[in-house]
Amino acid sequence: MELTLWTYEGPPHVGAMRVATALKDVHYLLHAPQGDTYADLLFTMIERRGHRPPVTYTTFQARDLGGDTASLFQTAARDAVARHQPAALLVGASCTAELLQDDPAGLTQAMHLDIPVIGLELPSYQRKENWGAAETFYQLVRQLPGLERRAEGAPQASRPSCNLLGPTALGFRHRDDVLEITRLLASLGVDVNVVAPLGASVDDLRRLPLADFNVLLYPEVGHSVADWLQRQHGMPCVRTIPIGWRATDQFVREVCELAGVPLPDRSASRARWWSESVDAHYLTGKRVFVFGDATHAIAAAQVAAHEMGFEVVGLGSYSREFAREVRAQAQALGLQALITDNYHEVQTQIQALQPELILGTQMERHIAKRLGIPCAVISSPVHVQDFPARHSPQMGDEGANVLFDTWIHPLMMGLEEHLLGMFREDFEFHGDASPSHLGHGHTAPPGITVDTQSPSTDNHWTTEAEAELRKIPFFVRGKAKRNTERYASELGLSPITVETLYDAKAHFSR
């Protein structure tokens, strides 16, 4: 264990909380001391939910450790059930309370409550948030009594139906993705039986086996349930993630095949048309670094490389449970995947690769600001600005349009920087002003140096050469600097002068 300022995932009980908060009538009893009750602020402050999550804490104090914390837990359980009257109760312990070994599940089972009680064994020091969410969802579905089954020989419904598995509270654009995919399925003639966990009740979970098949939208959370339903109830599953227009087309084909409905004629999305247009051609080959959870990182790499014509120079994820899939995608792109939950390692690789665009999490947004590189957020962890009031999905046809706008606009703003260069003597657009699409301020915070040209190297530039480099348009300045330094290194030229800069330009223009 090491001390860190940022973390990509919280402990597993936060994942359990995301599932409990997503459901309608489930309550989560968490054995936790004072100080471990911070997690509900994630939902009220970051996701901006209108109500607090359905969680009761035992909140024992230091003086309680010499007494009976087990009795305190049982009292909290009785009060929670009496007050909230849930249809099912989840019980577990925070990372600190886990050390007490009070056995919350056993204590609650011994109380013989008149509702289902699902005990959660979430090892806080071995696992993390997404695993905790997946395990909670799985245990809830697996242990819930009264799961309905489709009777043999029962008449088929007039339209095929499916379940959407994986969306949770505090998920990156999950609310909007569900709306978009539900509309897409309806246009194909397929109904949605249950969306779970997001918005589902205990009775909804019992109806999961009544659908014809499942759609796994977020493997990090829903893969265990999808696998279990396939084993126990013979339910096939669509596992293509419909992020980007290519994957959405493949998703539609798989849905139509499982549902037995005709494949429709689909018009090209605006994102597809724009990415093939002349206006977007100058973005071809832009160097992009991708990092996030496995689902979004893999999808983003595919969209960047195959739909927008970028050059993916780095791909990584903090999702260790899906490291194999991320490595396979990286290998397909001729890369070596970075699997880590240490943001320092991510920053080191970004500095080494010198990308022109970063597609990452809230953590990479901070790294990008320090390095002066455009960034678009594609994955959790996220901040409040990534829970917009508008409809802004990542999946489906409209999601492809959102991706195009979100990723292309930071690069298109490079053209604006070129025009602003014409007014460089103006007080607002002087040479030391930061690019407008990297923030509104013109000065960096104390102690942080922002390089608005490109990442620094060991090559020494003369003052005159640096001034000449600044005259090059921002959106190609990084490439010009790299080429010049490569040229100088190969010929052993030091320092880099104005003449070296123009000699390198002539060399690489041949």
Offer a quick outline of the entry.
With 510 residues, the protein is of the alpha/beta class.
Describe the structure.
The chain is an alpha/beta fold. It is globular and about 85 Å long. It has four domains: 132 residues, Nitrogenase molybdenum iron protein domain (Rossmann fold, 3-Layer(aba) Sandwich), CATH 3.40.50; 99 residues, Nitrogenase molybdenum iron protein domain (Rossmann fold), CATH 3.40.50; 149 residues, Rossmann fold, CATH 3.40.50; 56 residues, Proto-chlorophyllide reductase 57 kD subunit B (Helicase, Ruva Protein, domain 3), CATH 1.10.8. About 4% of the residues have low confidence. It is built from 19 helices and 13 strands. α8 links the parallel β7 and β8. α12 packs parallel to α13, α14 crosses α15 and α18 packs across α19.
